[in-house]
Write a structure and sequence with these properties.
- By secondary structure, the protein is mostly helical.
- It contains ten helices and two strands.
- It has a two-stranded antiparallel ribbon.
- α2 packs across α3, α2 crosses α4 and α9 packs antiparallel against α10.
- The chain is globular and about 45 Å long.
- The two termini are 25 Å apart.
């Protein structure tokens, strides 16, 4: 499958579209991380209203997503590099939501659902590989998907890597006016199974086709 750009917006149009869909994106991202929050609850948290019967840590995780979204929208032209992804991780990790927010990990981590383990990250290698995939001749949409999958598999942080990866993908999409990426609630189990397959095999064909078909959205103005 050739991954072309599905949409072509101005950066301003894409930012407007992202703001209109921010609560939806936060809701889907929270559920992907195992936070059982409804869309109305997410909207209430976004609006800084009290929500009953939720753990404080889960509420903080959603508030942090809001802060991270506004960071990427306020810095739409910023290049994707280690300081940028570290800042996103810092924002999603505040208030003890994830350990060592903004810090590249220096020890091994275990991955749920698989015996596969990522190597300990090397900052210079991350820099080189991000530059390589972002400077490729692929479409901007494919570059965004590649960046997301690279961050997911390399696991540069101790926790929260899928949130960082999704936000980075959206940053690339927005700065090129080619839409948004989010995992539909009804497709999240399929995504997780494909992600484990990708971790274990390093074959991205199936998961890239899945992300392109089901997870890229936008408006044709």
């Amino acid at each position: 499958m050739e991954i072309k750009n599905k949409y072509k917006m101005t950066v301003e149009e894409n930012i407007h579209y992202a703001k209109r869909n921010m609560v939806d994106s936060m809701w889907k991202s929270a559920n992907l991380e195992g936070i059982a929050v409804t869309y109305p609850q997410t909207e209430m948290i976004y609006d800084e209203l009290a929500v009953q019967n939720m753990y404080i840590k889960d509420i903080n995780a959603i508030i942090n997503l809001k802060h991270a979204w506004y960071f990427i929208l306020d810095n739409a032209s910023y290049p994707v590099d280690i300081p940028f992804i570290s800042k996103i991780h810092q924002l999603i990790g505040e208030a003890n939501v994830v350990p060592y927010p903004g810090v590249i990990r220096t020890t091994d981590v275990d991955m749920g659902g698989t015996e596969w383990k990522p190597i300990i990250p090397d900052k210079e290698k991350i820099r080189e590989e991000l530059e390589s995939l972002l400077n490729s001749t692929k479409s901007e949409t494919e570059k965004a998907i590649d960046a997301m999958l690279y961050i997911c598999r390399s696991q540069p942080f101790y926790d929260g890597n899928k949130r960082v990866a999704t936000l980075v993908a959206n940053h690339i999409l927005i700065q090129n006016g080619v839409g948004l990426l989010s995992i539909p609630i009804q497709k999240q189990l399929e995504f997780k199974n494909l992600l484990i397959h990708f971790y274990e095999t390093n074959s991205d064909k199936k998961i890239k086709e899945f992300l392109y078909e089901y997870c890229i959205k936008g408006i044709k103005f």
